[in-house]
Amino acid sequence: MLTQNLGYPRIGGHRELKKASEQYWAGKIDLNQLKEVAARIREDNWKTQLDAGIDLIPCNDFSFYDQTLDASVLLGAIPGRYSPVLAAGGTDSETDLYFAMARGYQKNGLDITAMEMTKWLDTNYHYIVPEFTAGQEFNISNENIFNEYKSAKSILGKKAKPVLIGPVSYLLLGKEKEQGFERIDLIKKLVPVYIEIIGRLKELGAEWIQLDEPCLALDLSKKEKEAFELAYRAIAANAGGIKVLVATYFEALLDNTQLAVNLPVAALHIDLVRAPEQLDEVLALIPPDLQLSIGVVDGRNVWKNDYEKALGLINQSIHKLGTDRVIIAPSCSLLHSPIDLELETALDPEVRSWMAFAKQKLNEVAELKQVAEGNDVLLQANKKAIESRHSSQRVHKQSVKGRVAAITEADGQRKSAFAVRQQLHRERFELPLFPTTTIGSFPQTDDIRELRAKLKKGELTVEQYDAAIEQATVEAIRWQEDLGLDVLVHGEFERNDMVEYFGEQLDGFLFTKNGWVQSYGSRCVKPPVIYGDISRPKNMTVRWTRFAASQTNKPMKGMLTGPVTILQWSFVRDDQPRDITANQIALAIRDEVVALERAGIGIIQIDEAAIREGLPLRKANRSFYLGWAVNAFRITASGVEDRTQIHTHMCYSEFNDIIEHIAAMDADVITIETSRSQMELLQAFAHFEYPNEIGPGVYDIHSPRVPGIDEMASLLAKAADLLPAQHLWVNPDCGLKTRKWPETKAALENMVAAARQARTKTSLGG
């Protein structure tokens, strides 16, 4: 019986890759120094997995930005607008091209937009969306996958297993960039390049290759299913003896089970953490020559594996297949887990004993093999840890459970319909057409982060820290006033993270020191851990919002994070349904909304950036999720009077198939990401005739480039063609925390100018 891993975190135990990447982008280190950091991380990762006793160890799972972007570069799927970057020359031109595709390019007289970015299925990891044209050609365009395999082989020998996104999922996760064709039809052009890649890896000595096909767990059309059959028949006919492992995850195969088990490959991986119920059907249909990799260790959460539960799935598989056809694995890539629990020396010992990070999950995979072979000592020790968590008095609070049980339909209803509220808001705030605002945060400079660090170390008193934050807040308010923004924000200088900040003030959460996971590129987040029932012991944001409001005569937004986003961006309990946890958070945030209103705050934004992210991958499962997710938001927003305006924000999401549920949230104003898609995402709101107000982002904050006035004005004009001008707001795509002040100021100055231009054009009847 083999063990394997599907992927490993690539940021480094102390975020070495993040720091090196940002230094490289800033010109503080050269490309060789960046590559040296990457090489050390890869080598450490391989040795960690080797030491854990894993039999098949992934390589090519490392990336400087995103594995889907890596695939696009490998396969030559490089949009034509980036050709000038290579033409500009220079020793680092290929790397410039790579980062230009991810982040945009604005130097050497060039101004090129970044490729679209969106969420990786239902995770908070983002990927760069491949772009395809009708005449798309593919070819091997760089040597990274081969060079990395050679490096891995020198350390791992035959255990090195190259990983690449599979050809069908690569196409399905991309987008057509012109009319008249379907991207899935490109499969016949794409597969020969995969065959060439696999052949070269075989020549280098590879015995296995992992092709990730997460789309096998989605709803597929007849043509898409045929593409899988075509692709893998061709690969099997030309693979030259290399063993192909197709990996699926995050959902059950369901109606794709017959298709998946009959692909002509050596092994199939299935996710038995997310969907253990699929094992029965897979085992009933599996052909006699297919190995089965069973994902029984949760690759997306931090809780210790229940060996007894996993052993039941392992034994069921062995009973049907025998030990030589079963591979024990995590459910998915460990990219979504923090790296090493051993770094968490300050965690509460009891709760720490319930947890496992990526490094520990490797040990769990190896130990499960031993347990399956009869090691009862390991099994009994694990049982003791699992029982400790289940029986802990720290997890359960009857007062919280009782409040959730008492929720009624009325708790999710505003007092009046939107049209009534809208008129009250217009009278109260007297905002111009195309009102301007930002999404909440302003740049977290080194000075601001240093203040927070000094406070934690005791080098600043609370009074000194507060005075410094007040000064930064006042400066931000004065700058916004001078700029001419219509609705201001306080900048969130006192906040570390939009979820962590709230979790630190809510009961039922705990926090790690080094539990970082990658969100995109160099952006890392440190998700809170929800271990128990959640309640709000005191006000969380009132002090700073009230202070900011007292410094200006303009409207000041109160800024909160919504219950579904807090849920999605935390490591959540796995011992109760997610909707119950969401309602616990919703009630806590509702209390804060009411407290802000009582403090005189008239506009309150409740960010639900992740509501689309939590959507089940299968359409048949979505209704239940959308019901409780939308209602959780409504619970937070419905405790206020009609004259209080409720905003929400959502980023990097496709809304077409859930637009009626977005409308059902009944936020007075919604702001969304639209700039990278050139307002493409706004089509859903136009076709649906979205009834409330909307702020389509005109400034891509995930790129360092500064869009010009005309560019933003053009985007606003597109928006005004689709939606009533009196319903439109003007804002960036997202918060500005990760940007630098010079680019932020320049971009927002252009944004305000574009809004004024739009007002003039509209008043003249243009």
TrEMBL record:
Q: Which residues form the Cobalamin-independent methionine synthase MetE C-terminal/archaeal domain?
A: 434-756
Give the enzyme's EC designation: 2.1.1.14
- The record lists L-homocysteine as bound by 439-441, 492, 607
Per UniProt, the keywords (alphabetical) are: Amino-acid biosynthesis, Coiled coil, Metal-binding, Methionine biosynthesis, Methyltransferase, Repeat, Transferase, Zinc
Matching SUPFAM superfamilies: UROD/MetE-like
Where along this sequence does the record place binding of 5-methyltetrahydropteroyltri-L-glutamate? 15-18, 119, 523-524, 569, 613
What is catalyzed by this enzyme?
5-methyltetrahydropteroyltri-L-glutamate + L-homocysteine = tetrahydropteroyltri-L-glutamate + L-methionine
Does the record's keyword annotation contain Cytoplasm?
A: no
Q: Which residues form a coiled coil?
A: 448-482
Q: Where does L-methionine bind?
A: 439-441, 492, 607
NCBIfam families named in the record: met_syn_B12ind, PRK05222.1
The protein depicted here goes by the name 5-methyltetrahydropteroyltriglutamate--homocysteine methyltransferase
**Which gene name belongs to this protein?**
metE
